[in-house]
Amino acid sequence: MNFNMKPRFIFKSEKKQILELLKHYGIEDLPYLLVASGKEKIRGYSGILSTDEIIAIDEAIGIELIGAYFFHNYENNLRLSTDAIHLLKNKITKNIVNINEKQAKEWFKGQDILLSKEEQEKLKEESKTFKIIQYKDDLIGTGKLTEDRIVNYMPKERRQK
Amino acid sequence: MERQIKEYKYMPKPIFEQRMNQVLEKSNFSEKEKKDFWEIVHTEPINSIRCNTLKIEPEKLKKRLEEKGWKIKQPFKDNPEIMIIENQLKPGEIGKSEEHLLGYYYVQEISSMMPILALKPTNLDNFLDLCASPGSKTTQAAARMKNSGSIIANDNNMGRMVVLASNLEKCGVSNALVTKRDGVQMCKQLKRAGFSFDKILCDVPCSGEGTLRSSPSTFISWNIKTVENLARQQKVLAAAALEVLKTGGEMIYSTCTHAPEENEEVVQFLIDNFDIEIQNLELPIKTRPGIEGWKDKKFIKDIKKAARIYPNDNDSEGFFLCKIKKISEKGFETEKQKEKRQQEESWEDEL
Q1: Residue to test with chain B: of A65, A138, A160, most B Cβ within 10 A
Q2: What is the pTM of this model?
Q3: Which CATH fold would you assign to the domain A96-158?
Q4: Is A50 exposed, middle or buried (0-12, 13-18, 19+ CB in 10 A)?
């Protein structure tokens, strides 16, 4: 986490670009104030304070973090955080990969999901980008699909020991 | 559920035991209740969790946990998010489940859920959680506020703030600003910048007499000097918090200790220095009224509206909370300022 963030708000034109990128997941709107955290991370704030009020609070007492971590921008490919997925779950309609129980167990331990020949064949036509991982009714994270696996980005502190 | 009685590894210091018995007597404990108290503080606390309604509905979570073989009880009809796990779990199981990793529930002691139930923050409130780490009450507030309104969650220690931030993240809290400031300085600076709050939780660092079940080492670490020092700090912190509470706004002052110096005495100090009122509390568990006096000190009658939670009354940990409403902006005065004001008022009367 990047603490002591100087709020850099993401306004209309930049937000429009982000919304364009979010279409990858089927997300059409994002009713959050977006704030850049470091070079590539973007956080979402849903509270009622205005940007002016947030700036004034930052000037008065210093803000360490604003809102929730939403996504990491890898050269215009957005990787949604596990928690953003929950907040946006009703908006996510595309690029979802379903996994089985054994794979889910591996996923929760932080391991990559190795794809069988059959699964590789099935996902052959899929773009080799970020996918939302679904197990039963739960959206459990975001992984990057490659030829033979889905790369796991689960943060260490959130892995099952 | 069969209670796990710990070996009496830690015995209370005689002075602690004597003081505690005096407190229990002030709270009208019968001999039988006193015996129950001293028995229960040597037992493991029950497993309680709070469903994180930002991510899942209580009934869905209950069903999922029951499918894993957990026996779930929802003790309060109006608060289905509060759950007790009645069967024995394997060590660490409660923190290792997929539902926990996904932030579907927060492991939280029942008595520590009471301050937010009493404060009732809404999606229109500006809410300050002054000593927020590890974030149990902040995440509970965010869930009640449906991730709207505004939360400032503060802790003055870097390590604790990291834990706070991580828990907010895991619970999907998106309406909070996290700060790392000394609480007193922060309130002063916020006041100077013109900020005030509708609701404040002032859940202060305390001597932890209420947490003997989960932290039995408190039996040996407890000492009266610490209680007295903490009481001084608590007064300053609570007074600073009241300075940034809006007129008509509400604040919960709470601790996880039974020591009257850290509870009723702090509230009395606030009453003496601010234009405030103690409010009635409606809580779903058994509480006992605040005590009306301690040692040579007498407290305001309304202190009875404060709530003392004793472990043997609800099979919980111990807690103290008091709901305070700010009536006007009359604030804290030093003795010198008070003297000056009284002198000016007497001159005005003469004129």
Answers
A1: A65
A2: 0.93
A3: Nuclear Transport Factor 2; Chain: A, (3.10.450)
A4: exposed
